[in-house]
UniProtKB/TrEMBL annotation:
Annotated region described as Disordered, given as residue ranges: 498-557
Gene field: ANAPC7
Swiss-Prot/TrEMBL keywords: TPR repeat
GO cellular component, as recorded: anaphase-promoting complex
InterPro entries in the record: TPR-like_helical_dom_sf, TPR_rpt
Basic and acidic residues bias spans: 543-557
Start and stop residues of the TPR repeats: 321-354, 456-489
PROSITE patterns reported for this sequence: TPR (PS50005)
One Pfam family per UniProt: TPR_19
Protein known as: Anaphase promoting complex subunit 7
Signal peptide (UniProt feature, chain positions): none
Gene3D superfamilies named in the record: Tetratricopeptide repeat domain
Highest taxon of the lineage: Eukaryota
Keyword RNA-binding tagged: no
Length: 557
């Protein structure tokens, strides 16, 4: 069968909606010839496009992308004319568009010389630029309008800019009645703009409207999930992420952020590993899978391996903010707060978010740079009003100054009033009560919110305070609960050993270490715990910082 006859037969099957039969034929006939150096390059390109058409019809876009990239990376590239290479660039751009990777779609189409761009190329470039809010979106739409004066979408976009500039006061744009194709692009661009301005509640509502108009759109659901994650609505965010992944098994967009959520809330590190492994199998050229794998090693406390992998993600995508944010988490876990502050700043410059604000504040607090931390915390609280995490961040910074303890307590209580699941507010307020020798208040606070925050960290903190209050049997029970939830919780294990020494001061040297030789060991244990709880540089203070770091990925700020 000649190449032309084979391509024609595949197209007939596709036109008859026999897509699986068409793909089966393409697998049998096209794939072998794509690797055959005896077949002319133009014929191989025609076979490739026929094969990819079958994959597109079945929405196997990631598989088609692999086929195209493997083909174009082979020696056949040197034999293709410039016109053929432009066709390949358009095919790759089409796949990127279908995958919702608008930045990569735009970059691919920019490789086509300006004089060779079709009206369809310009329309797709303009849409991508509008969605990612590229500065050249107006220029591209203007060029499209020159090429096609009846391009309603271009007219609507440029008219919207005139309607909201100057003294328009941001009035609502009236679109032409037949500009339906524009509404989806405009809504998506508006929602993303809200995310960049940290208007997460409004952005989530806009994505929800988009999801109703475009049912089954995984990319919209994933971005809606990120908005809820930034608002600390973790369970809702996780549900939406999983819905998006079930709709599109090759979804990559927003999965770097999702890996941060899983690393923060999942008690099984292999959940993060499975996500990262799936993303890398889907597309190793994207950074999201590498970020997820870096977080897996971070959860396993293998920070050097995590750093090496996250640097790989940064090399693949130097402008991907989540890769720098993940490095900040790793540097914090390694005790390198200065380095963490630098990379959090880099992430913030690329894409400011509730997470980057929280990362910067935590890093500066750990460095002792409270003035800088306060400025960022205050800015976040102003940009995200009625956000418990942002309010708590200001309280956490103020809690490090004895003169501001009362104000800090008020802010932390207000944060809990907004969101009783704001774990960093509970932790900071409990530590503040301990620092001011108000142990009953600290215990009452944790007991009040423990049912809604039943993590191993919270049980460990509760046990710490019970130890200070000399309620040792209860402390031991709560350390045990923490270890049941997370057997790798070293802080809980250390605390349990401490309580055991306090409860059994006359134990044998083998079981009590040096406790028998030093009668004051039990007293020293209590003193060390108390000093740490009041903010000194020892075990309890370290536990506070560790607790805060574990919540960076929750998007609570």
């Amino acid at each position: 069968m000649t190449t032309q006859a084979l391509v024609s037969e595949i197209q007939q099957l596709l036109d008859s909606d026999l897509c699986e039969s068409a793909l089966h034929l393409a697998e049998l006939e096209c794939r072998p010839q794509l690797l055959d150096g005896c077949v002319a390059p133009k014929e191989r390109l025609a076979l490739l496009r026929a094969y990819c058409s079958c994959l597109w019809a079945l929405r196997q876009h990631r598989a088609s992308l692999r086929a195209i990239t493997e083909f174009i990376a082979s020696p056949v590239r040197a034999s293709l004319a410039a016109e053929d290479l432009e066709k390949v660039a358009r095919d790759i751009a089409h796949v990127r568009w279908e995958l919702g990777e608008h930045d990569l779609c735009l970059a691919q189409l920019r490789q086509i010389p300006r004089s060779h761009r079709t009206a369809k190329d310009l329309a797709r470039m303009a849409r991508c630029a509008a969605v990612i809010q590229s500065a050249d979106a107006p220029e591209l739409y203007a060029e499209l309008l020159k090429r096609q004066p009846n391009a309603v979408e271009a007219y609507a976009y440029l008219n919207s800019l005139r309607g909201t500039s100057g003294g328009g006061g941001g009035r609502r744009q009236q679109y032409p009645p037949d500009a339906g194709s524009y509404h989806g692009v405009a809504s998506l661009a508006a929602a993303r703009g809200m995310m960049l301005r940290l208007e997460y509640r409004a952005a989530a509502a806009e994505f929800q409207r988009l999801a109703r108009r475009h049912r089954g759109n995984a990319h919209v659901l994933a971005q809606q999930a990120t908005c809820h994650y930034m608002l600390n609505e973790v369970q809702k965010a996780r549900t939406l992420y999983e819905m998006a992944r079930s709709l599109d098994g090759s979804l990559v967009q927003e999965m770097g952020v999702y890996s941060g959520l899983l690393a923060a809330v999942s008690r099984d590190p292999h959940t993060v590993y499975r996500l990262g492994n799936h993303l890398l199998k889907t597309d190793q050229a994207r950074p999201e899978g590498w970020v997820a794998m870096a977080r897996y090693f971070l959860v396993r406390a293998q920070t050097q391996e995590a750093l090496a992998i996250v640097w790989k993600a940064q090399t693949l995508a130097p402008d991907y903010a989540e890769a720098y944010y993940a490095e900040g988490e790793i540097q914090m876990a390694s005790g390198c707060a200065e380095e963490a502050a630098d990379v959090f700043q880099k992430a913030h410059e690329l894409a400011p978010s509730a997470l980057t604000y929280r990362g910067i504040v935590d890093a500066y607090v750990q460095c002792g740079k409270y003035k800088e931390a306060f400025l960022y915390a205050k800015e976040a609280a102003e940009l995200i009003p009625r956000h418990a995490g942002a309010l708590a961040a200001v309280g956490i910074v103020l809690s490090h100054s004895p003169e501001s303890h009362d104000k800090a307590a008020q802010l932390l209580e207000a944060a809990l009033g907004l969101d009783p699941r704001c774990t960093e507010a509970i932790a900071a307020l409990a530590s503040l009560h301990v620092a001011t020798q108000q142990l009953p208040a600290a215990l009452a606070l944790i007991e009040k919110y423990l049912s809604e925050n039943d993590s191993d960290d919270m049980y460990t903190r509760y046990a710490d305070v019970l130890t200070l209050a000399s309620r040792l049997p209860e402390a031991a029970a709560n350390y045990t609960t923490a270890l049941t939830l997370n057997p790798d919780n070293e802080r809980a294990r250390t605390g349990f050993d401490r309580v055991d020494r306090l409860m059994h001061p006359n134990a044998s040297p083998e079981s009590a270490g040096e406790g028998e030789d030093d009668p004051g060991a039990a007293s020293d244990d209590r003193q060390q715990l108390s000093d740490g709880a009041s903010g000194e540089d020892d075990a309890m203070d370290q536990s506070m910082h560790e607790f805060d770091r574990s919540d960076i990925s929750d998007g609570i700020l």
